Amino acid sequence: MSTFKPRTVASRILVVGLVALATSGCARAATAEVEFEQGPCRLVEPDVLEVRADVLERLGFRTVERAKVRARAEGFGALEFAADASYAVRVPVSAFVERVHVVVGERVEPGDPLLTVRSSEIARLRAEVRRLRAEAAAERDAVERFERLVTGGAASTRELVEARARLNALTAEIAGLREILSSVQAEMSGHDRLTIRASAGGQVLARNVEPGERIDPDDERGAVVIGDGEQLVVHASFPERYAPSLSRGASCWYSIPALGPTRFAGTLTQVSLAVDSETRTASALCRSDQPSTDLRARMVARVEVEIGDDGALLVPRDVVLLRRDRFVAFVRVGEDRVERRELELGARIGANIQILSGLSAGESVVEHGAVLLDGELDRLL
């Protein structure tokens, strides 16, 4: 009995030690598993993170709000003639230029001669009108004769009706040819010569023909270009982020670097609804009501346009992250969850950025710590 008790005690001590060791190992393993599960973030679903409470407290959040903003978009362009300020004079028939009556820079009034040309087509039309006039005169005499004969019973009514029909046809044909001649500014006098005249006043901007040249109605440039040098607009291009904010009727200003700091105030008269696929710019026309004799077409201009929105969504710039070719922000979507969401940006207004899509008013976005969340999400993905 005395030798059995010590062995029993030793066995008990050994068993207790093994149990303690095993328990200690399990505790460490359990602790390691808990620490792994309770990392700073846990991926819940694609682009959504569950953030540990103590980490969440260190993040800075900002509520997305609507605000009335007024800013200015900047673009560059060149002066060009307004759509109603210039026109190209084209010769209506194939012809040879006999004389040019104007020079570039000359002022012309409506009706002033610009060109004198010679055309066989004009000669043919005039000859045809003279021939038809002679036939119509003879037919008119025939109608008067048949009217007397019908009254006296010497001719039938049918012959009178036929004569009147032939006269009416000739009259209509003459009227059609005269209308053609009138449309090309050709009078009946003369043979093959035609004088082209100005239809509206202005300044001769270009003269594209010389005496002796042959010209055709389908010449794209026009024989002479006439315009009003005081009616100029700026065709400007703006970065595509401003495209949604550009609107017809908005105030605009432009300056010409070659002329110094003078600014011309105007209004946007036209805004393109498409963005250029190569330059990624939106175009608009700025027209000023301040004429100046110093301005010239094709001068380079710097343009500013007032843009604004009574209910624009604004967030600080720190909220927005650039990922390759897209912009994102982290939005709080639960008590301890944030979502990485793609954004469409508008204008940059001071320290803020306008949000066109991706966020709604009242949502909470991460302002401080978004970069760390972005890296953690990429690691977990």
Automatic annotation (TrEMBL):
Q: Name one GO molecular function term.
A: transmembrane transporter activity
Question: Which Pfam families has this protein been placed in?
Answer: Beta-barrel_RND_2, BSH_CzcB, RND-MFP_C
In which domain of life is the source organism classified? Bacteria
Signal peptide positions on this chain: 1-29
Q: Which UniProt keywords apply?
A: Coiled coil, Signal, Transport
Q: Which family does it belong to?
A: Belongs to the membrane fusion protein (MFP) (TC 8.A.1) family.
Q: What is this protein called?
A: Nickel and cobalt resistance protein CnrB
Organism field = Enhygromyxa salina
At the highest ranks, the source species' classification is: Bacteria, Pseudomonadati, Myxococcota, Polyangia, Nannocystales
